């Protein structure tokens, strides 16, 4: 059976699933990748040069060894044929059980001609594919030729050397590696001359060691210098990245925005210079667009504030005249009375809208609110009492902490927040719904929650529920004379909460809607 790891390795990855991390971490930054690439290319180049040098030196030294073999000739192996007694003259004890004479069966010296022979020169004579003589030039002065004890494998190796006059490398169990050359003798025999390859191997190994040390040091120095060079070359790009990071941290959603950071100028002929120039141009365009947006917002706020201020007097005048007309003692037709009542109601509603617009304009302008200790618990009790009177068909539930919750702020505006949230819950839920108001202090923050079990806020309205003039679907039990909301209540809630350094969020679904207001509590 396959193991679990094997099955997971063969299973294709699903969408969104990450593969397991590799054994060797990959560099993530451009600087690290360039440095790693430079070091890898240099390592490959050094390895190629080292291998080529070792192969070339080994071939050169081996060729010199073959040339030395040709210059030495076969004098030494040929002299082994005539040195010493014949096999028939040897004592019986020097013969083996088959009657043949063993080659190099002892430590005795051979009688070969060792004049002008290099120490370690190997000589062997083969007759009919059988080694008859084998000796090596001794290292001590006057030692002459020394017999070489050969095993069966060594004899087969020597017998397999072709007599073509070329160099061949063989491995003798007694003498290690040798470079040998075999030629045909005058008597039909084969004469083999060899020189040890140990000097060649020692030289090649020394070159390998020197190359490894030199190339290793070169890689270390090149890696360090390359990292510095890459870092210096990418400094303009790093500055562009730092500038982009600084811009990303600026609040661009609203208000006056000044994109003061700019990427340092670089050589426009380079890729980094072109990127920096394009980035600065883009920032300039963005800053111009944000400046125009801010100017438009300021003009709109100024217009809303001026219009609200100018409309307050005419609306109040219309409402006063309507109320005065309704107080006329004489007979007035019913339709006229109805019209005057509607004028009074709509003028009152328009007056509330004007007041709300003026409040939002002042909050947008950043005008500070009062900062006095406010008993938020008392405000909740008063607001719920008013809501119960306005909506007796709803079930109102309070969940308050034992200790009163106090926050620094404007009591009138905070009461307006409570009134708007409760009115919103009452107007958008059917009669008989349960509305729960909870207040507590959590981590130095007053947390107010308004929860109801109504139908919920439609999903398409939730993203813009705190925007101005956003109207939700009112409950079906509303009568035709109840009027319609201004669409500013929740906007005022969000603006007042933000003015107090807090926030408001909505979580809604079928059968559960919760508005959560957080305001920093007064810990003093």
What does this structure look like?
There is one protein chain. It contains eleven helices and 14 strands. α2 runs antiparallel to α5, α9 runs parallel beside α10 and α10 packs antiparallel against α11. It is rod-shaped and about 165 Å long. 46% of the residues lie in helices and 17% in strands. A seven-stranded antiparallel β-sheet has the order 1-4-3-2-7-6-5, sandwiched between helices. A five-stranded mixed β-sheet has the order 9-11-12-14-13, covered by helices on one side. Strands 8-10 form a two-stranded antiparallel ribbon. The protein has 524 residues and is an alpha+beta fold. About 7% of the residues have low confidence.
Oligomer: single chain
Mean pLDDT metric: 78
**How many strand units?**
14
- Give the percentage of residues in beta strands: 15-25%
What is the gyration radius calculated from CA atoms? 52 Å
Distance from N terminus to C terminus (CA atoms, Å) equals: 69 Å
Structure class: alpha+beta
**SSE sequence, one letter per element:** HHHEEEEHEEEHHHHEHEEHEEHEE
Tell me the major beta sheet.
7 strands, antiparallel
What is the number of helices? 11
Uncertain ranges: 84-110, 475-484
Q: Which geometry do the CA atoms define?
A: rod-shaped
Helix fraction by DSSP (H/I, runs of at least 4): 40-55%
Spatial strand sequence of the major β-sheet: 1-4-3-2-7-6-5
């Amino acid at each position: 059976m396959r193991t679990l790891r094997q099955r997971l390795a063969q299973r294709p990855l699903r969408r969104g699933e990450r593969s397991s991390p590799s054994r060797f971490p990959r560099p993530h930054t451009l600087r690290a990748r360039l440095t790693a690439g430079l070091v890898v290319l240099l390592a490959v180049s050094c390895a190629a040069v080292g291998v080529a040098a070792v192969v070339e030196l080994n071939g050169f030294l081996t060729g010199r060894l073959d040339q030395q073999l040709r210059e030495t000739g076969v004098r030494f192996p040929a002299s082994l044929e005539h040195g010493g007694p014949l096999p028939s003259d040897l004592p019986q004890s020097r013969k083996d059980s088959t009657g043949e004479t063993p080659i190099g069966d002892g430590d005795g010296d051979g009688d070969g001609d060792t004049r002008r022979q290099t120490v370690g020169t190997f000589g062997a004579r083969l007759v009919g594919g059988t080694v008859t003589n084998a000796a090596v030039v001794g290292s001590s002065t006057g030692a002459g030729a020394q017999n070489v004890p050969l095993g069966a494998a060594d004899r087969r190796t020597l017998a397999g050397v072709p007599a073509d006059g070329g160099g061949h490398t063989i491995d003798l169990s007694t003498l290690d590696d040798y470079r040998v050359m075999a030629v045909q003798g005058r008597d039909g025999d084969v004469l083999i001359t060899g020189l040890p390859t140990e000097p060649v191997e020692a030289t090649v190994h020394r070159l390998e060691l020197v190359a490894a040390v030199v190339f290793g040091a070169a890689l270390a120095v090149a890696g360090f210098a390359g990292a510095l060079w890459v870092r210096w070359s990418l400094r303009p790009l790093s500055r562009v990245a730092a500038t982009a990071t600084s811009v990303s941290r600026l609040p661009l959603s609203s208000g006056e925005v000044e994109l003061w950071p700019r990427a340092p100028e670089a050589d426009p002929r380079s890729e980094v210079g072109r990127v920096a120039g394009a980035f600065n141009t883009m920032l300039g365009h963005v800053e111009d667009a944000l400046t125009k947006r801010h100017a438009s917002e300021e003009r709109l706020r100024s217009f809303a504030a001026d219009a609200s201020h100018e409309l307050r007097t005419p609306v109040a005048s219309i409402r006063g005249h309507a109320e005065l007309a309704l107080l006329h003692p004489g007979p007035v037709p019913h339709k006229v009375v109805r019209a005057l009542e509607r004028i009074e109601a709509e003028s009152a509603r328009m007056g509330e809208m004007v007041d709300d617009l003026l409040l939002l304009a002042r909050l947008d302008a950043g005008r500070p609110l009062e900062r006095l200790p406010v008993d938020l618990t008392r405000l909740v009790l008063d607001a719920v009492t008013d809501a119960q009177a306005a909506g007796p068909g709803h079930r109102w539930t309070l969940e308050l902490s034992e200790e009163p919750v106090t926050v620094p702020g404007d009591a009138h505006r905070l009461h307006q927040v409570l009134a708007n949230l409760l009115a919103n819950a009452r107007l958008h839920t059917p009669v008989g719904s349960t509305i729960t108001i909870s207040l507590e202090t959590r981590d130095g923050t007053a947390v107010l929650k308004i929860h109801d079990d109504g139908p919920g806020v439609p999903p398409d309205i939730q993203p813009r529920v705190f925007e101005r003039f956003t109207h939700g679907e009112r409950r079906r039990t509303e009568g035709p004379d109840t009027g319609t909301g201004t669409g500013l209540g929740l906007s005022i809630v969000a603006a007042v909460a933000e003015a107090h350094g807090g926030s408001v969020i909505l979580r809604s679904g079928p059968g559960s809607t919760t508005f959560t207001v957080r305001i920093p509590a007064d810990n003093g």
